[in-house]
Amino acid sequence: MSFGFGVCREPSIELEGENNMSISVPPSNMHQHLHNVLQSGEGADISFKVKGETFPAHRIILASRSSVFRAELFGSMSESTASCIEIEDMEPQIFKALLQFIYTDMFPPSDDHTDEGVELDGDIMAQHLIVAADRYALDRLRLICEETLAKKINADNVVTTLALAAQHNCQQLKELCLDYISSSKILDSLIETDVFESFLVSCPSIYKQLLKKVASNRRT
Fold first, then answer.
1. What is the pLDDT of residues 35-45, one digit of tens each?
2. Which of 75, 99, 186, 215 gives the lowest tally of CB atoms within 10 Å of its CB?
3. CA pair distance 118, 52, nearest whole angstrom
4. Does the pTM exceed 0.85?
5. What positions belong to coiled-coil segments (predicted)?
6. Closest of 112, 131, 136 to residue 122, by C-alpha
7. Dihedral sign, CA of 83, 88, 89, 90?
8. DSSP 155
9. Average pLDDT, the chain
């Protein structure tokens, strides 16, 4: 006796018109969950002491976000076995903001820039965070800070902003500062100042780049 098997398919039903059915999917709130983890300190396995303040953190999160932290916490450096690392050359507000970015991938809101009555405005915070971002190889944070400072470039701060950009590998910010300075009106006002002269003497490579910008502007 033999048996035969076949596949029966139900006739497909074609719906006329466009299918407008959809499911509402909320936006990702992972950053908020990680922010809560940072705030609570739950499961923390490392802490940082910054000028008297202690910040608990999680090695794996720091290492996954920063190659510098990965080397410090999981490499052959002495910090890899330490339970508490002391940082002496950074303000607590800046380190707190740095951790918040690492956990949430977001620039800290302005209301988080106050700590024990000491308030830092967005520009000052961005300047300090550029240094921290360069130190811990956080390129996205550095670029966010570059964007913040680029919007505030003026004749009063362009020299200090250029110096900061040149020192901490902020190529886009540096180019914008050079473009701003190379306009004849701004250059004429700055060239008489001691600060600008001292900066150019200390950074001959920037001086050469500025000369090229000026020459290019005159040709166009």
1. 999 999 999 99
2. 215
3. 15
4. no
5. none
6. 112
7. positive
8. T
9. 88
92, pLDDT greater than 60: yes
* Distance in angstroms (rounded) separating the CA atoms of residues 133 and 219: 37
| Structure tokens belonging to residue 159 | 């020299």
Q: What are phi and psi of 184, to 5 degrees?
A: -60, -40
Q: Assess if residue 195 is contained within a domain.
A: yes
Q: Is residue 129 part of a domain?
A: no
**Residue 107 within a domain:** no
Neighbours of 173 (CB within 10 A): 25
Range of the domain at 167: 153-220
Backbone φ, ψ for residue 85 (5° rounding): -115, 130
Q: Is the pLDDT of residue 6 over 90?
A: no
- The CA distance from 83 to 95, in Å, is 17
Q: What is the Cα–Cα distance from 177 to 188, expressed in whole angstroms?
A: 15
Per the structure, the count of domains in the chain is 1
Does some domain include residue 9?
A: no
End-to-end CA distance of the chain: 94
Section 169-186 average pLDDT = 91
Contacts of 218 (CB under 8 A, 6+ apart): none
Q: What is the pLDDT of residue 114?
A: 54
Amino acid at 35: H
